[in-house]
DNA sequence: CGAAGAATTGAGGTTAATCAACGAGGGTGG
DNA sequence: CCACCCTCGTTGATTAACCTCAATTCTTCG
């Protein structure tokens, strides 16, 4: 990918240049994901905002870095310049005109980058109970064979030990255990101890998505 | 344990299949980065180990996900199966036989994914002072115009406010300020207050890379 | 000069880590 | 079979790290 080139009859569609002053929002949450940006000069930071105002900046990018990638129709994070910045803008639609294997490969990487962004928000800004709740929710939402639904309940298989979950969520195994116990005590989930992987029944999805937690 | 399909005249080079039992290390830190893996069935976790044993798992991957990407010659993280897993293995060298633009695009994404992995380790497992130290070090190492070197000192420009650094490192601005003060008090760095972006002189790089912090 | 924004520092509170004990299951070997 | 050990999970008591709230300083800018 090189700089300042209009390589086809779309003229300014590909590799269009843009200059951005410092502290300027380049992409906002919810913007349609039409373009991908490459930094030529300057620095850009990517962040997300939780509903209650907590913010996590998860990438600091310099020359050569790319941002604006997402597998979705809209951006789910904010891109803001730190310094005077020069960008090259690439139409997203153009990215799809590439061999299919490569294309799907890029698609996978994009999705995984977005997941890493969400995980940075979790690690940087969420409480222990919020982390465990998010973990459970992701198990449900993941198109896993792990999730199973009956009329009233959702069941998920938790394929990790407390220690592994702790290392994933940036906690200790004791704190993870306490968070599970609290969710059980609150009636949000239920589970029994037994040998194999843990099987959790989710009684109310709402509290798991909520932001605040009380006793 | 292997070899379902050979899809072209490269023989078993592309899309070779592999079956992995649960709790098996697929990639270890330091392994030569010859292949890229795609999950067909099962779940895989990616993690890093700090020298003192702290571990951070930063990705949980399911069917369709890719792992083993790195811009380097060797893997810098561990991939381990959680469940019975079926993988497709792609030769890394083959990934380079694609149009250059796409190729460099993938390269950028790979590098950024690795940075996100490191940042997850920071957010999940490092102390406040370690986070700030790592932040400063990355400013130095980043091929930035921000870093400048004289005979004895290294200078870096810190282009962010305490609040932004805090949101990046998963801390509060007060904790960031205290960490800078501590590093200054310890004689590791020095800086003065003034209007523009902060300019930091680094006197000893060693302590910034160290893991443990006293007084 | 007064106001506003950024940074620093202190005091006190809260969350999660640490240290520790205990219980449940699953092997293994006697 | 039982005794033993080991891993895993739970829970309690205490500690430590970080957050919150607050006061102060420095700088710039109107």
SSE sequence of chain A, one letter per element:
EEEEEEEEHHHEEHHEEH
CATH fold call of the largest domain in chain A = Jelly Rolls
Domain module tally of chain A:
2
Give the helix tally of chain A.
6
What portion of residues of chain A is helical?
25-40%
**Which sheet architecture does the biggest sheet of chain A show?**
4 strands, antiparallel
CATH architecture of the largest domain in chain A: Sandwich
Radius of gyration of chain A from CA coordinates:
21 Å
Mean pLDDT over the residues of chain A? 87
Structure characteristics:
homodimer; 215 residues; alpha+beta; Jelly Rolls; Arc Repressor Mutant, subunit A; four-stranded antiparallel beta sheet; 27% strand; disordered N terminus; DNA-binding
Task: Describe this protein's structure.
2 copies of one chain form a homodimer. By secondary structure, chain A is an alpha+beta fold. Mean pLDDT of chain A is 87; it is low at 1-13. Chain A has helices at 92-95, 100-125, 128-141, 162-169, 173-185, 206-209; strands at residues 14-20, 25-27, 35-41, 44-49, 55-61, 66-67, 78-81, 85-91, 147-149, 154-158, 189-191, 198-202. The first copy, chain A, has 2 domains: 3-122, Jelly Rolls (Sandwich), CATH 2.60.120; 127-209, Arc Repressor Mutant, subunit A, CATH 1.10.10.10. In chain A, strands 1-8-3-6 form a 4-stranded antiparallel beta sheet. In chain A, strands 2-7-4-5 form a 4-stranded antiparallel beta sheet, with helices on one face. Helix content of chain A is 32%, strand content 27%. Chain A is elongated and about 60 Å long. The longest helix of chain A has 26 residues, at 100-125. The interface between A and B is large, with 51 and 52 residues. The structure holds a DNA duplex (30 and 30 nucleotides).
């Amino acid at each position: 990918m090189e700089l300042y080139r209009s390589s086809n009859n779309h003229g300014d569609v590909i590799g269009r240049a843009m200059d951005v002053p410092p502290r300027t929002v380049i992409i906002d949450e919810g913007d349609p994901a039409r373009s991908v940006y490459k930094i030529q000069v300057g620095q850009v930071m990517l962040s997300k905002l939780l509903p209650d105002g907590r913010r996590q900046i998860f990438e600091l990018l310099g020359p050569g870095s790319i941002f604006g990638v997402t597998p979705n129709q809209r951006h789910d994070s904010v891109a803001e310049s730190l310094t005077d910045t020069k960008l090259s803008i690439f139409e997203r639609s153009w990215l799809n005109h590439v061999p299919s294997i490569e294309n799907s490969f890029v698609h996978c990487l994009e999705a995984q980058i977005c997941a890493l962004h969400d995980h940075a928000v979790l690690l940087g800004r969420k409480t222990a109970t919020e982390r465990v709740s998010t973990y459970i929710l992701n198990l449900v939402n993941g198109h896993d064979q792990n999730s199973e639904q009956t009329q009233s309940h959702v069941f998920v298989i938790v394929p990790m030990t407390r220690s592994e979950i702790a290392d994933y969520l940036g906690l200790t195994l004791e704190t993870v255990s306490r968070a599970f116990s609290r969710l059980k005590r609150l009636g949000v989930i239920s589970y029994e101890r037994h040998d194999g992987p843990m099987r959790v029944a989710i009684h109310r999805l709402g509290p798991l998505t909520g932001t605040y937690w009380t006793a």
